[in-house]
Automatic annotation (TrEMBL), chain A:
Keywords: Cell membrane, Coiled coil, Lipoprotein, Membrane, Palmitate, Signal. Residues 1-24 form the signal peptide. This is Sugar ABC transporter substrate-binding protein. Gene3D superfamilies: Periplasmic binding protein-like II.
From TrEMBL, chain B:
The chain crosses the membrane at residues 34-56, 96-117, 129-150, 180-202, 223-247, 285-307. It is found in: Cell membrane. Residues 92-306 form the ABC transmembrane type-1 domain. Keywords: Cell membrane, Membrane, Transmembrane, Transmembrane helix, Transport. It comes from the Bacteria. Gene3D superfamilies: MetI-like. PROSITE patterns: ABC_TM1. The keyword Transport applies. Residues 1-24 are annotated as: Disordered. CDD domains: TM_PBP2. This is Sugar ABC transporter permease. It holds the Pfam family BPD_transp_1. It is a multi-pass membrane protein.
Length: 453, 314
């Protein structure tokens, strides 16, 4: 009996040890991590974090239904170009990317980061300034990037009051006004001009609200998202009147102008536009038919290329969709600067190799991959010459939009003032407060937050 | 033979032999216990790393201004900021409003449904499954569907209201109706659980009590009022306390429906969403940690009150 029990406990112990060993093996670093092969970069491995719908293996694109190559393509090419080097990817979705990036930076998880929040992270001293790499690398030239992109991603370091380069533009992005040419035709309204004014948009939106003269169906002149991105929609209206959100980039220099005359006019304009929009703006509803053949909305404010270009071609609506620029000021600037740069972590052990990755990520090979396989927007000038870009007419106004947004990007874009302003815009859109009162409150709360932070 | 063995057993040598046996049994028991403790180590490690450590780390953070990498000690400033913050008290109000109406609607309604199911001779299992299905549905998925159910123009709720000649609210696009949209979702999601728990208790009530009442001439309603309901007191207390704690921690569905700041106009931002907004979208971990501890105290106080009110003994 004793033997039976002892052999039973032995097996239990053995089973436990196997579980622990398996667990530890699963948690351990990739055994091939530092082995490398022969060559200049032998023994060096970099970990690259990427955000979005990237996948390691080939897959089927859910929008186009076409086969998409995984990022193994980038890995293979980079390792071929850099003998001995190894690349490991850490892929993550957009959902919660800021907190995940923060956690990864804190624990030194990766060498290279796709970093839309570079303005938040650079002041923490966790990113490598790139000027020294750019200066000493004769093979590299910042002129390869679309105008305004490098400038837009500049950020403040921990001990500096001057904007510096902490990331190279990797993915381009922009905001623009999209419209449905078919509805314009049915209503007999001229298409939007390339640079429409608020008056032009309002006039045309008003004309196209009601029963469609051809189909008899209810049409709406305009739609904009009244919740999550409404702060940026409003600020663009202010920029269109030569106004601005405020001034400064470092927190101790920022001064908000949320209740300026232009902002109040802009919010009143959005309140007027609500009359020509379907119900549900504030809960991101009412635009369900957009980008379908049954679309019932003529003009869409504050749209991005990801929501527009790829779906338009996937749905066969490329001839029906038009793109006009957001409201710009007299200097031709306005609208949200967006996209993703790539940056090197301060505690990366292989910074030279990480720099090589940054150059690779902004090379034509990688940029073509992100456009042709992923449908994302390239950040380099050479893209205008690619056949794959030329085949998509809708990309041309997107590149134009990338050249003229407001830069540097709104530094409070992921901080409390954005949520304060968003909530007050919602208060106005839902009739809780008038525009002036809502923006006065937003100004007061944001300024108090700034003083107490 | 038996005597011999008895002799052997009672001799001095036998005593030490017996001691050895006792020791050996103790050793084996200890060894066996040790084996099981080794198996418990992963769980204990998990509790220490993912529960105990974050709880204390959060307490530490609540005294700092922290964005995860840069920290400055600020004493009780974060608590002061949270306690004087309008949006925080608005989130407390929203949490209580949604929670209270969820509880006062779901528990009585669930009990009524459970009583009806219990009195149905046929199809009990069918009804149990039908009502319990929402509870096993992911609340995130359910919230996404409810955004369509409550769509101001295409939603089925407004379609039915319109068909009945009633006004059709904008639901999630209006601060006043958005909360009721969340309550509707919460009731739909939780009622299956309430029904199952009530049914379990209903079936445990002694049939003799009903037979005695029948003999005394009690009507069905009287039996329900004077036998069933008093016997359900413990179940109601259990549902009140678990429902209350769940309601205080509400986050998932309001995040899906209204984002971290509880659109529209913070009308559905709960305490959990407030913590998420300040901590994970604004990198104000100190403020978020202080708000977490304040929320903990609020839940503690109200759970204590609930225990007192419901006379439930733990």
């Amino acid at each position: 009996m004793g033997r039976v029990r002892s052999s039973k406990s032995f097996f239990l112990m053995l089973a436990f040890l196997m579980v622990v060993v398996a667990g530890l093996a699963g948690c351990s670093e990739n055994s091939s991590g530092e082995s490398g092969g022969d060559g200049k970069w032998a023994g060096q491995t970099i970990k690259v974090q990427m955000i979005g719908d990237f996948a390691m293996e080939d897959s089927t694109d859910p929008i186009t239904g076409e086969k998409t190559k995984g990022v193994h393509v980038l890995k293979e090419e980079f390792e071929k170009q850099h003998p001995g080097a190894k690349v490991e990817f850490i892929l993550m979705p957009w959902e919660g990317y800021t907190e995940k990036t923060q956690a990864m930076l804190t624990s030194g998880e990766a060498d290279v980061y796709q970093m839309p929040g570079v303005a938040d992270f650079a002041p923490q001293g966790v990113l490598e300034p790139l000027a020294p790499y750019i200066e000493k690398d004769e093979d590299f030239n910042l002129d390869i990037f679309i105008e305004n992109q490098v400038e837009g991603w500049k950020a403040l370091g921990p001990d500096s009051d001057e904007l510096k380069i902490y990331g190279l533009p990797f993915l381009g992005d922009a905001r623009f006004i999209a419209y449905d040419k078919k509805l314009f035709d049915q209503w007999g309204v001229d298409y939007l001009s390339d640079h429409p004014t608020m008056d032009e948009v309002a006039e045309k939106a008003k004309k196209m609200t009601g029963k469609n003269p051809e189909t008899g169906e209810q049409n709406y002149g305009i739609w904009f998202r009244g919740d999550w991105s409404s702060a940026f929609t409003l600020i663009d209206t202010a920029e269109g009147q030569n106004g601005r959100w405020g001034t400064g980039f470092a927190w101790d220099e920022i001064k908000f102008e949320f209740n300026s005359k232009e902002m109040v006019n802009g919010l009143n304009w959005l309140l007027d536009m609500q009359d020509y929009a379907p119900k549900g703006l504030v809960s991101n509803q009412g635009s369900e038919n957009w980008m379908t053949k049954d679309n019932n909305i003529a003009i869409m404010l504050n749209q991005g290329p990801g929501d527009t270009v790829k779906p338009a071609y996937a749905q066969g609506l490329e001839d029906r969709i038009g793109i006009a620029q957001e409201f710009k000021n007299d200097e031709g600037r306005g609208g949200l600067f967006a996209g993703s740069p790539v940056a090197i972590a301060k505690d990366s052990k292989h910074k030279d190799l990480a720099w090589e990755w940054l150059k690779f990520a902004t090379s034509d090979f990688a940029q073509k991959y992100v456009f042709e396989e992923m449908g994302l927007v390239p950040s380099v000038n050479s893209a205008l010459e690619w056949d794959s870009v030329k085949e998509q007419d809708l990309m041309l106004p997107v590149f134009d939009a990338m050249k003229t947004p407001w830069t540097p990007r709104y530094p409070w874009g992921s901080a409390q003032p954005r949520f304060i302003l968003t909530s007050e815009i919602e208060s106005a859109l839902t009739g809780k407060r008038d525009a002036q009162a809502a923006l006065d409150k937003a100004q007061k709360e944001s300024t108090e937050w700034l003083e107490n932070r | 033979m038996a005597k011999d063995s008895l002799d052997i057993n009672v001799g001095p040598g036998a005593k030490s032999h017996a001691n050895r046996d006792v020791q050996s049994i103790k050793q084996k028991k200890r060894k066996s216990q040790l084996t099981w403790y080794i198996f418990l180590i992963p769980s204990f490690l998990g509790i220490l790393l993912f529960m105990a450590y974050p709880i204390f780390e959060s307490l530490r953070l609540s005294f700092y201004q922290s964005n995860g990498t840069i920290e400055n000690f600020t004493g009780l400033d974060n608590f002061k900021t949270v306690l004087t913050s309008g949006p925080f008290w608005n989130s407390v109000w929203n949490t209580f409003f949604i929670g209270i109406f969820q509880i006062i609607i779901t528990i009585p309604l669930g009990f009524i449904f459970a009583s009806l199911i219990n009195s149905t001779p046929k199809g009990q299992n069918f009804f149990k499954v039908i009502y319990f299905l929402p509870n096993v549905t992911s609340i995130v998925a359910a919230a996404m569907i409810f955004a369509f159910v409550l769509h101001p123009e295409m939603g089925i709720v407004n379609y039915l209201l319109d068909a009945a000649g009633l006004p059709t609210p904008s639901w999630l696009s209006e601060p006043s109706t958005a909360k009721w949209g969340v309550i509707l979702l919460a009731v739909w999601h939780w009622i299956g659980f309430v029904i199952i728990i009530c049914l379990a208790n209903l079936q445990a009530i002694s049939p003799e009590m009903y037979e005695a009442a029948k003999i005394d001439g009690a009507s069905g309603l009287q039996q329900w009022l004077f036998i069933t309901i008093p016997n359900m007191a413990g179940t109601f207390a259990f549902l009140l306390i678990t429902g209350w704690i769940g309601a205080m921690q509400r986050f998932n569905e309001v995040y899906v429906l209204g984002g971290p700041n509880g659109s529209p106009a913070r009308s559905i931002q709960t305490m959990g969403a407030f913590i998420y907004e300040r901590g994970f979208t604004g990198f104000e971990f100190g403020i978020a940690s202080a708000a977490t501890y304040i929320m903990f105290v609020i839940i503690l106080i109200f759970t204590f009150l609930n225990l007192k009110i419901s006379n439930m003994k733990l």
